Please model this.
Amino acid sequence: MLKFVTDLKNFKSDFLIYIKMKVGLFIPCYINQLYPQVGIATLELLEKLGVEVIYPTGQTCCGQPLGNSGYEDDSKGICQLFVENFKEFDYIVGPSGSCVYHVKKHFDILEQTEDVKRVRKNTYELCQFIHDVLGKTDLGASFPHKVGLHKSCHGLRGLRLGSCSERMDPHYSTEEDLLKNVKGLQLQTLNRVDECCGFGGTFSVFEEAISTKMGKDRIQDHIDSDVEVITGADHSCLMHMEGLINRNKQPLKVMHIAEILNSSI
Amino acid sequence: MAHADEAAIFNKDEAKVDWHDKALWFVRQKRDKSAHNVQGWEELRNLASALKANVLSNLDTYLLQFEENAKKNGVTVHWAANAEEHNKIVHSILVKHGVKRMVKSKSMLTEECHLNPYLEANNIEVIDTDLGERIVQLAKEPPSHIVLPAIHKKKEEVDVLFQEHLGTKPCDGDPQYLTGEARKHLRDKFLKAEAAITGVNFAIADTGGFVVCTNEGNADMGVHLAKVHIACMGMEKLIPQEKHLGVFLRLLGRSATGQPITTYSSHFNKPAPGKEMHIVIVDNGRTEQLSREDFRASLHCIRCGACMNTCPIYRRSGGHSYKSTIPGPIGSILSPGLDLKKHSSLPFASTLCGSCSDVCPVKINIHEQLYKWRQIIVKEVPQPGVKKNILKIAGRVLANSAMYHVAGKSARFMLKYAPRFVIYSKLNAWGKARDLPEVKNGNFDDWYKNRKKNE
Model:
């Protein structure tokens, strides 16, 4: 029975590759400009899994910074450009839960043409795409470190990448499933499993005091849980925590989950 | 002052912030454990949400049905369009009975209407009998939480407050001694009160009765001793039938404090012989909120406070930082409906993490409503020029890939080569406590182009 299931899974992924799905790589603006290594890891990882990936070079941003600040109406041009760049793809995959969530949830401000509807439906967060669409969890990676998983809110409560501590649903986690198969990786248990880190886009600047306090507390939870590397599926949260870690010279690192899943140390 | 400024002041005492955060997180954890023990918790939330949606869609019918049944029971029903009318109605009932002293159990509605100062100005003594409410009343402060009104005060602070007002002995904040003294003090007030005010947790359209939930029994004590009972309720407090309490009472106590049920769930149906019972049904902006499709569901709220306990911002900024009767996430979607300009910073006091919506027993989409309020506020309330211009320009730049590439390059160049004192100037709120990301030699676009070239 088990063998049959494995065979079926292999068949499923092979079949998908066979029909040559067209995958567009969505690299959010801040990752493009500040964290190219996350984009590179994402692309390499997808290629390693046999997916043919195209990166439309005209892409910019999903419009989230404007929408979350109340300027949704001024972001329509950005959203429209996103749709133009990605409308030809079967799947659109990006390494950032909150940007993907923004496309899926808030592109309702555009006229709902067939293109817009398809783009919203086919946009996936990287882990979700690997786990749910490709049906793979063991990616052959190795990373011999103690890792803490920061479950970013928009991925968790927006895209439902995992069960949320507030809800009484059975436990599941897309990112945990992938990390548990990484050789040598020790996934540490945190005291607060899905507390927000306090980034929140422009919140990080306009509510500076609370934002940094939340970040400090989130980092402390990882330190208390003996974590060496904080990872997650949303690099904006990691950028915020990295800023605090570097300023306070704390003994831990941040790495995007794509970098870990793509590593073979 | 905006929420951010209030929060910054609260955060000057980091030890207190940590204490406040942990106290409320403890309540959230109690709630989690207790909800885990209920099979079908999520189904119960669905039911509660659907029942409230039904009530709000048929509010006119249910309100009239409730009035008719309450009248049949011998209760006098009053209608108040706003806070002022509410206060006048309550005052007129008290004047009719020559009441000079009265007790009040917890009611966020009377806080919303500022009933206490109104009655005190008319020479009527109002004593809040919920212990937490009494503490903040003595301290001349508003409640900082709707279920735990004095959660911002440490027991040592209560010790000092009681010494001043109740003449207690210094006790190092001994809770048993302090509650014992509060009990004696309140007992006297109960005995002398000529009228009692309570809130209403659930009003039942089908029977005309209503339910008041407390943990201290103070509502019952007040009502049973006084000649006159005045129950003040927001018009959204209705439920269709008594059996629906089976849904709401199971959710309320667990969501609020993790108790399976509040210690007292007191059912009031009609006045005792020789006594009077009044119900004041208050609108005060609720009809208007009902008319706003995107914000209608905010009226589902059963005032459990779970969204406050779970909110990482509320826990670290305290209830007073919201400067509104109902603080926290639910307050941040209700208050802008009452006064958009005054409360315009509240929908921004959130990372939109969504924890409030998932914890809410009646499934209010709080974080989505926060997002919606933001869109309205930037149009209707003047915004700081810098914020507005930066975002409007960003809207144009990011809609054009050529402009975006130039902007990205320049920003990276600035970050890499500008002197530290320029980058970490006072204008850079990010850099106050955080380092900026280290800039690499190229961006992803450059890397990708290079790779293509070498293929």
In short: The longest helix of chain A spans residues 2-18. The CA atoms of residues 162 and 172 of chain A lie 5 Å apart. Chain A touches chain B through 76 residues (CB under 8 Å).
